[in-house]
Amino acid sequence: MAQPSPEPIRAPMGLPRDVVQPATKESSLTLERGLNLLQAVADAEGEAPSISELAATVGVSRAAVYRLLGPLQSRGLVRREGSKVRLGLGVLWLAGRVLPQLRVASLPALRALAEKVGATVHLTVADGSEAQAVAVVEPSWTSYHVSYRVGTRHPVQRGAAGRAVDLPPGGPPWIASSGDLQSGAFGVAAPVRGVPGLRASVGVVALQPLVPDEIGPQVLEAAEAVAEALR
Predict the structure, then answer these.
(1) What is the three-class DSSP state of 187?
(2) Mutual orientation of helices 62-74 and 25-43 as an angle, nearest 10°?
(3) Which end of the chain has a smaller Cβ tally under 10 Å, C or N?
C-alpha cells in the first residue's frame, strides 16, 4: 500500500516558504559568538577594548567581529568609537526590564511563604555593596505585621537579607538577625542560588522573635522555588 505523502511545511502568514527553516548549528554558533562578544565588551575594565582585542578574546577574526557587531549596534547594545567598542544604552533598557520580571516570577513563592508563616516576606537583590528589596508580600490574615517598602536599601553587611545573598555554598543554609536594621525586628533569610549573575535572598521579617530552626527550612524552600522560577 502506498504511503501518504508527508504534509508540506507551511510558512506563517506573510513569510516566504524559504524563510521557514529549522535553526542550524551555524546560526547557534553565530549567536554564541555574538553573546561572547557582548560579554567581552562588558568585562573590559578601564579603556574600551579594540576590535583586535575583541577578536583575540572571542577567538575569531577581525572581519567576524565587525559582522557580529552589526546586530548588537542596531539594537543599541554596543557602540563604536573608532576602533574601540563600548556598551550601548540599550543595555540599560534591558536592565530596566529585569526587576519587573523578577518580581512577577518570585511572587507565587513569596505569597505562599507569607501566608504560611504569618509574616512579611521579601526578595532582596544585591546591587554592588547595597541590598535592595525588589518584591514584598504581606500576609493577609494577621492582625499586624511589618510594613516593608519595595525599593528599601541597606548595606549588604547588615540584616539577614543582606548577609544571606553571599552565603557560600556548603556554608549555613540560612542566616538570622535581630535588630540589625530596625530595633525590635527579627529576620531570617536564605540565598537564591543557581541563577547566573544574580545575588539575591528570600527573607522573613517580623516584630516577634523567630525560631531560625523552624522558619529557616521554609525560607530556604521558598528561595529554591524562586530560583527555579527564574531559570
Answers:
(1) strand
(2) 80
(3) N
